Each structure stands twice: as C-alpha cells, then as structure tokens.
Amino acid sequence: MPNPKTTFVLGADAPWYYSNHSATASLSIHSERNVVHVMKYLPATGHSDPKRDEYELTGFLDCIQSGWSKHVVRKRLLPRMLVTHAVPTAATGGLQGRPSPQIKGRPGIYVAGDWVGSEGMLVHASLASAREAARMILADTDIYTEGAQDGT
Length: 152
Fold this sequence. Notes:
The protein is an alpha+beta fold. The chain contains two helices and three strands; from the N terminus they run E-E-E-H-H. Strand 1 (about 10) and strand 2 form a beta hairpin. The longest helix has 28 residues, at about 120-150.
C-alpha cells in the first residue's frame, strides 16, 4: 500500500471504514500484496445510490492511501452487503430479547457474537458476549473445581 503504516481508519463524521487485513494476516500467496476492505455503513432503510457510494469510498481511499489505484490487482464492489442480520426491536424484546451466551439445556456450551447477549451492537456485542461467556465458564469451573476438591 502507498501508506503502509495506515492499516485501519473509521470515518469520524462519515460512515466509512477502511482496513488492511493483510497487516495482521497472510491473505495472499504474494507477500507484497494486500487485501483491503473499504466500506460505507448504509442507513437502515437501505436506500442509497451504489455509484455515489463507490465514488465516496474511492475519494475516502484516495485521502488515506493516495495512489492506491495503480496497485489494484482485483477490485470487487458489493453495494448491498449485509453487516448484521438482526437488529434488536421492541417486538423481539430489544437487547434483552437476544439469546444468552449460555445455551439452555446444553451445560458447558457457550456462544458469543454480535447477535448474543443484552449489551451492544456488532463488535461491542461480540466482545461483551465473549466476556460474559468467559465469566459463565469461570463460574462453572469454580463449581467443578470445588466439587473435585471435596470428592463430590
């Protein structure tokens, strides 16, 4: 990339996202190549103009990686890619209506993700549900550890 130290950018006043995923993972058989993602978060209504969105994203990328277009091997536009499949609504109980990290009827099985737990959205929900799952695992481990110590 023209500016290799810039690996991640979020728009502060615009709904844009840039990440060079190759900065932390080997994603190409060619070590000098990078896999980058540039996105625009769309309104919940889904109404947008894909051509205008592409123009905005190209301008955003020009600002942070000037000269990037000379290095493109392959480019793909996904104008209606879904980031999240379910938005908590009042009808589904809001955030409280999402499943718990602990799977009912399946002792010792836990889940985490952007659709789990009563806190946050997207990455915040993923991390919060992972933290809660870890707490539940530790609580279960304490019970099993205490039982093992007293022979029960």
